[in-house]
Amino acid sequence: MPTLSGSVLPRTVPAAAWTVRRAAARHVAAYRALRREVFVDEQGLFAVDDADGVDDDPRTEVLVAVDPAGRVLGGVRLAPAAEALAASGRDLGWWTGSRLVVARGARGAGGIGAALVRAACVRATELGVLRFEATVQVRNRVLFERLGWQAWAACDVQGSPHVRMRWPVTRVADLVRSTKSALASVLGPLAADVGTVLPVGTLGGAGFRGDDGAPVPGTDLVAACDAILPALLERDPEWAGWCAVLVNVNDLTAMGAHPVGLLDALGAPTESFARRVMNGVRSAAQAWGVPVLGGHTQLGVPAALSVTALGRTDRPVPGGGGHPGDALSLTADLTGRWRRGFEGRQWDSTSARGAADLRHLATAVARAAPRAAKDVSMAGVVGTTAMLAEASGTGAEIEVDRVPTPASAATGDWLTCFPGFGMLTADEPHTSRMPAAVGALAASAECGRLTVEPGVRLRWPDGAVTTAVPGAATGLGAA
Questions:
Q1: According to the model, what pLDDT value does residue 341 have?
Q2: 203 with 187: CB under 8 angstroms?
Q3: Cα(2)–Cα(97) distance, rounded to whole angstroms?
Q4: Given pLDDT bands bounded at 50, 70 and 90, which one contains residue 113?
Q5: Strands laid side by side in the 292-299 sheet
Q6: 456-459: which pairs have CB atoms within 8 A and are 24 or more residues apart?
Q7: End-to-end CA distance of the chain
Q8: Average pLDDT of the residues in 264-292
Q9: What integer pLDDT is reported at residue 203 of this predicted model?
Q10: Residues whose CB falls within 8 Å of the CB of residue 475, separated by 6 or more in sequence, listed in order
């Protein structure tokens, strides 16, 4: 079992200059020698050597504290959890910190151990880890708790009592908070006016509040609208134009609607910039076979782009149609790659697809007719699950190792990115028709369930459950 060990002794050595850094090869050798000195010779935790398989994993990273002369005063390592690798054969975003060690003569040198633990937490965050843990000696529990860690289980390592500690990772909750949590405050006044100064169809009407598209009262039309982030528009105008169509078609797909037309509103600093954006819009419109009906264009202004899509269906699929106990499925196109310049944030599974494939995928939800559906938005798989669950008046639990994931994408990134084509659906267990609807074009699997308890939790291969979204995503409530 990987452990964070080490001794806690009174500070008797004057603080000296040192820094924490990622280890080079020469530092790793010194770090391992220091581990043997402390864990074998000094503490007797191991008979001959404390080396294990984690040391051999090429993904393992070592952080060391070094003095001005380059001598290693302490170190710690980070690596994917061995249990996750054994259960799924891949990195699930569950990592452990282990083998924390400080040289005997440096244990009073200004808090090296604490600095290494803090640096490990920062590095785990940079790596996109969703679960970060350590098994520490009981006497070090207080140190870790002071650093914000939480104890969750007790165990023995080599006959020595240890405590399993967990660093609270807030990556998903932070993403949801930054992208969705203000919606209730911003849109609340509209909801409050329904039935008074505003008609009942406001915000989608009964059963469709918070959906990807809005049924137009008295018709079989569904309308959807999305704006493109200025940073994306300015960095890659053609891709932004393509994405403006993509996200709107996805919105209609999630509602089970067939796209019939687009309207665009474009602001651009120059005519050439506007042409680049419209080239992307035109290419996507042709690929999905949706005409651009009109819109508005203005030059000499900061870049801005929004697209409205119209679709038709007489049986719109709600985002809030799920029930407690329903199975949650993800259907996603795993082909493609990270979009250059947006690695870890935007997966491009569409630009290399042929028109026939794209149009077929756009009919998947209509043909499968699930109880509830939402397309995976910029809140990622977990954040979008939180919105589907909130609209359904439920919570959700996701089994991390059952989520369809591209081989070249880290799980933490995949669960928080925009995946190109990704649909979350809810149905009675083992009844989803999404696999048949997409065929070989996308992967589809039941990977969770809707629950009575609000929020979204992640279930890991060892049975542990961590909270990803503690409560409602938008505050708009049940549809």
A1: 92
A2: yes
A3: 7
A4: very high
A5: 214-215, 221-227, 304-312, 258-268, 292-299
A6: 456/172, 456/382, 456/385, 456/386, 456/389, 456/395, 456/396, 456/397, 456/398, 457/395, 457/396, 457/397, 457/398, 458/130, 458/131, 458/382, 458/397, 458/398, 458/400, 459/397, 459/398, 459/399, 459/400
A7: 46
A8: 98
A9: 86
A10: 181, 183, 184, 185, 188
Collapse the DSSP code of 85 into the 3-class scheme (helix H, G, I; strand E, B; otherwise coil) and give the result: helix
Residue 202 has pLDDT above 80, yes or no: yes
What's the pLDDT tens digit per position in 397-411? 999 999 999 999 999
Token pair in block for residue 199: 């008609």
The upper half-sphere exposure of residue 377, i.e. CA atoms within 13 Å in the direction of its Cβ, equals 30
Q: How confident is the model at residue 210 (pLDDT cuts 50, 70, 90)?
A: confident
Q: Reply yes or no on whether the pLDDT at 9 is more than 90.
A: no
Amino acid residing at 103: A
Q: What is the dihedral of CA 135, 138, 144, 150, to 10 degrees?
A: 70
Residue 138's closest CA among 162, 167, 158, 113? Answer: 162
Q: For 154-171, how does the pLDDT look when each residue is reduced to its tens digit (9 = 90+)?
A: 998 878 899 999 999 999
Q: Say yes or no to pLDDT of 256 above 90.
A: yes
Nearest to 318 by CA among 401, 240, 278, 374: 374
Angle made by CA atoms 68, 70, 71, in degrees to the nearest 5: 105
Name the token pair of 479.
Answer: 């549809």
CB atoms closer than 10 angstroms to residue 458: 26
Distance CA 406, CA 411 (A): 9
- In Å, how far are 80, 232, 340 from 236, measured between CA atoms? 34, 6, 10
CA-closest candidate to residue 260, choices 213, 206, 217, 304: 213
* pLDDT at residue 108, rounded to an integer: 77
- Alpha carbon separation from 178 to 171, 229, 379, 392, 415 (Å, rounded): 11, 14, 9, 22, 16
CA nearest to 396, candidates 364, 421, 378, 374:
374
The two tokens of residue 315 are 């049986």
Mean pLDDT of the chain: 93
Rounded to two decimals, the pTM is 0.91
Only one residue has tokens 């947006």, namely 342
d(CA 309, CA 252): 8
Structural tokens at position 2: 């990987």
Check: CB of residue 188 under 8 Å from CB of residue 295: no
Separation between Cα atoms, residue 351 and residue 243, nearest integer Å = 10
Best CA proximity match to 172, nearest among 374, 328, 383, 378? 383
Burial of 110 (0-12, 13-18, 19+ CB in 10 A): middle
**Contact at 8 Å (CB) between 310 and 260?**
yes
d(Cα 5, Cα 286) in Å, to the nearest integer? 60
